[in-house]
Amino acid sequence: MASKVTIHMVSSLDGFIAKKDNSVSWFETKDHYENGVTEENAEEFMKTIDCFVMGSLTYEHALELSKNFGWAYGDVPTIVVTHRNLPIDRKNIEIYSGDLNKLVNEQLKPKYKNIWLVGGAMLAKDFIRLKLAAEIRLSVLPIILGDGKPFFDHIGQEQALHLKDVTAYKSGTVELCYEISTYH
């Protein structure tokens, strides 16, 4: 099986991935969709991911959340893309600064099969523009935030997608899985 890079993002119905204050309380929804499926076991699903890639702001936010909730990405190798010198306190986290094509094609794809980019929006845009991602998995939560950080903010190019799968969960969350078309 070939290596695959998946962009994973959680957003509100109006396309925001974070509130201005970065709070994640909106992730806890009170909605219930009777016809939805039960969400799969997160720990079991995490075992299918070989490597995480994230930007520095996502990393800093995950670090902040880890103080109360633990490190969400476990012992899975995690690459933080940044030009800044950030604190690293886990042996499975590595800082990368440089060419994204080299990162994906020379460092990640030879070692890992299932690579997930988990944030943020700027890095996701770069991966789409450079055609480094094979799919986008977008979990849309049943909420309108009205303001915040948009997932796609002036990406600057049209991108054809192919809908591979849709899953509606009992929580009211809908997961859309799109294959990124490589043709123009």
- For the termini, the CA-CA separation is 25 Å
Compute the CA-based radius of gyration: 16 Å
Compute the average pLDDT: 91
The CATH superfamily is: Dihydrofolate Reductase, subunit A
Order of helices and strands: EEHEHEEHEHEEEE
Q: Report low-confidence residues grouped into runs of 5 or more.
A: none
What percent of residues are in strands? 25-35%
Q: Any idea what the CATH architecture is?
A: 3-Layer(aba) Sandwich
Would you tell me which CATH topology applies? Answer: Dihydrofolate Reductase, subunit A
Number of domains: 1
Which word captures the global form? globular
Give the number of DSSP strands.
Answer: 10
> Any idea of the CATH class?
Alpha Beta
H/I helix tally: 4
Main beta sheet strand tally, sense and closure? 8 strands, mixed
Summing up helix and strand content along with how strands pair, one would put the structural category as: alpha/beta
The portion of residues assigned to helices is 10-25%
Strand order of the largest sheet: 5-4-3-6-1-7-10-9
Question: In words, what does this structure look like?
Answer:
By secondary structure, the chain is an alpha/beta fold. The protein has a single domain (4-19, 32-171), classed as Dihydrofolate Reductase, subunit A (3-Layer(aba) Sandwich). Helices cover 20% and strands 29% of the residues. The protein contains four helices and ten strands, in the order ββαβαββαβαββββ. The protein has helices at residues 42-46, 56-69, 100-108, 121-129; strands spanning 4-12, 16-18, 51-55, 78-81, 93-96, 114-117, 135-141, 149-150, 161-168, 174-180. The strands form two sheets. The protein has an eight-stranded mixed sheet with strand order 5-4-3-6-1-7-10-9. The protein has a two-stranded antiparallel ribbon with strand order 2-8. A hairpin with a 5-residue loop joins β9 (161-168) and β10. The longest helix is centred in the middle third of the chain and has 14 residues, at 56-69. It is globular, with a radius of gyration of 16 Å. The two termini are 25 Å apart. The relative contact order is 0.28.
